[in-house]
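Researcher: Please translate sequence to structure tokens.
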Amino acid sequence: MRDARDGRNHDIREDIDTVEDTESPEPRAQMRQPRVADLLADTLRSRILRGELPDGSLLPKQSDLLEEFGVSKLAAREALRILETEGLITVRRGNTGGSVVHAPKRDSVAYMLALVLESRQVALPDVGFALQQIEPFCAALCAQRPDRHTAVVPALRRAHESLVHAVETGDEKRATPASREFHEAIVRLCGNETLFVVAGALETLWTAQESDWSEHATRAGFFPEPALRRQALDEHAQALALIEEGDAEGVARLLRGHLQTAQKYPMTGVGDDQRVRATLLRPLVQPADHL
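Model: Translation complete:
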């Protein structure tokens, strides 16, 4: 077996034997099983991250794990609990039981970020301000891509045309998601994987909160003024043109002002003290068919 920690071929049985040999008799009964479980969890986690256990597949049965690694049932169950806590598997019980693999996704990062922000009682305007700083930088990167005419512009144009259709037909329910698709595409297409994951998680978090706020605003009778909606549409078109022209500074400057305006509507009637709610993202990371 290949150990992801140092890149060498490695047998987990050797680590298990080392754990057992180096522990004193007294703490052995208390410490051996959790440490063996950590080693097994490390190995299974590495297989998931390397794609050897693809998303949606099933982990080997417990009996197979016991045979392959020579661990106890207690250690195997503890290893599965570790992976389930990390969101890498969902353990199904019953006749159709098994452990379903979940490859790490941006939605999972967004949920963990929301949990941290909620625990720190972070207000929604704080999240909006962070987006105002990060997304313009992603837009500048889009404008700097040498392949932007084929890798960036077509996707942004499709998202923009979707928003144009929603505005022209008066489809309020479609307008907000279409607008978010444009912004999310800017982050997704910036060309930097780290920014895509980090900023993309923030976009996903904001979108989940915004959808909830928009429903609240609609029920309360708040709607964006037609002039404001038209302004947002025009600014999307300008951003698209600036990216196509390769004007990184121009599109960053435009988006900073645009986001300040665009964030006003979903916050209507919510209040500056409204906090992040992680539960709004939970369905994204645990689909019903995985329960």
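Researcher: Any highlights?
Model: The two ends are 31 Å apart (CA to CA).
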